[in-house]
UniProtKB/TrEMBL annotation:
PROSITE patterns: DYP_PEROXIDASE (PS51404), TAT (PS51318). Its main location: other. It catalyses: heme b + 2 H(+) = protoporphyrin IX + Fe(2+). It comes from Streptomyces sanyensis. This is Deferrochelatase. Involved in the recovery of exogenous heme iron. Extracts iron from heme while preserving the protoporphyrin ring intact.
Length: 409
């Protein structure tokens, strides 16, 4: 085995080694880095060594722990490419994703970008957009769940950064590993498909907080408290397509709604903290509802204050988005934050790469978003600038590729 092969499975300069050496930046920083690289490889840290299986009942990247770096991308099939080319592409992509998620190089043409790092919890997830079925002659197999999403009042959708024949979601706890995976996927597309759009995002890094906790978004709010939990009896039926679905190729799959939501941070930050809390309906400090308790305490939507007004305002985001206010509609939110520098208006082009998962977007995302669209106080501080809806097939078994039941059925 070559030194390169060994180093692909090792993470140099662990936290312990850095602490012992002092890691002084400046005159000594470069020398320390060189000395570490020249020495014997050390064992991978916990972050580097963690891997997620590619093969399984469901695709990775849906219910797995959210990683600190994300890349979302859409591809369009090349002119003249059809079902046969799409099948060959998905076969290549699935084989490549399995190797990358195991921490192995991307074949003989590997660029070396991710050398020295392990899998870093890499996940690669594939989905099909509405147009994919037209391009492959499979319109009869297209589920009604892929019908176009309604237009909402906060929408300022850029079609160039929306939809697509094929969708890829990549997550990893190392930025280079995430970039390397998407770059390898793009190269493996060959002549079959070309990039339509790409977006990059981030979350907190593992170990950044004293204990695991729900992430904060760029507004400083704890974001994701109301997610359905795997321990809940109806979790699977909310997130995954049932076995008795009309389109058997989607049984065990899920639907992803992807929205690039810009946060109008300058406007938001002009609000006093207590005003921000009333917009959300939760305390900023710990995510607890304004009616008291902890983050996981159920909000008391009937509670009123001494003046007789609702403690959680009628237009608070937490009230309007609550499942009990939407006929039980719920979705599993798994977003990334993003920041793309200043926008044309000079304000931060920053916000949320919103990704939510559900068995049926017509019963998950759509009714909740319609309700929010009619009176959510948060709507004044956000703008939806890109959108996509994708059918994400179930996971592939050993020897199979994602989407095989559709493309060879």
């Amino acid at each position: 085995m070559s030194d390169t092969d060994i180093s692909r499975r090792r993470l140099l300069g662990t936290a312990g080694a850095a602490g012992a050496a002092g890691l002084v930046l400046g005159a000594g920083g470069g020398a320390l880095g060189h000395a570490a690289a020249a020495g014997s490889p050390t064992a991978l840290s916990t972050v580097g060594s963690t891997s997620v299986a590619f093969h399984g009942e469901h695709q990775a990247g849906i219910t797995d722990r959210q990683q600190s770096h994300g890349r979302l991308a859409a591809f369009d099939l090349a002119p003249g490419a059809g079902r046969r080319e799409a099948a060959a592409l998905m076969r290549r992509w699935s084989a490549l994703a399995a190797e990358l998620m195991a921490g192995r190089p991307a074949g003989d043409g590997d660029t070396g970008v991710a050398l020295d790092a392990g899998p870093c919890s890499l996940t690669v997830t594939f989905g099909f957009g509405r147009s994919f079925f037209d391009r492959t002659g499979l319109t009869a197999a297209r589920p009604e769940q892929l019908d176009p999403l309604p237009v909402f009042s906060a929408d300022r959708i850029d079609p160039k950064r929306s939809e697509g024949d094929l969708w890829v979601q990549i997550g990893a706890d190392d930025a280079l590993v995430a970039f390397h995976a998407l770059h390898a996927i793009r190269r493996a597309a060959g002549q079959a498909a070309g990039p339509r759009w790409e977006m990059g995002g981030f979350n907190r890094s593992p170990g950044a907080t004293g204990q695991p906790m729900t992430a904060r978004n760029l507004m400083g709010q704890i974001d994701g408290t109301g997610n359905p939990k795997p321990s809940e009896p109806d979790f699977r039926q909310r997130v995954f397509v049932p076995r008795d679905t009309e389109h058997a190729w989607m049984a065990g799959g899920s639907y992803a709604v992807v929205r690039r939501i810009r946060m109008l941070l300058d406007d938001w930050e002009r609000l006093a903290p207590d005003a921000q809390e009333k917009v959300i309906g939760r305390r900023k400090s710990d995510g607890a509802p304004l009616t008291g308790g902890t983050e996981t305490t159920e909000p008391d939507l009937e509670a009123v204050g001494p003046d007789g007004s609702l403690v959680i305002p009628a237009n608070a985001h937490a009230r309007i988005s609550a499942p009990e206010q939407n006929g039980g509609a719920a979705m599993l939110r798994r977003p990334f934050s993003y920041h793309d520098g200043p926008g044309e208006d000079g304000a931060p082009d920053a916000g949320l790469l919103f990704v939510c998962w559900q068995a049926d977007p017509l019963r998950g995302f759509v009714p909740v978003q319609r309700k929010l669209d009619r009176g959510d106080a948060l709507s004044a501080f956000i703008r939806h600038e890109a959108s996509g809806l994708f059918a994400v097939p179930p996971g592939a078994a050993e020897g199979e590729y994602v989407g095989q039941r559709l493309l060879e059925g």
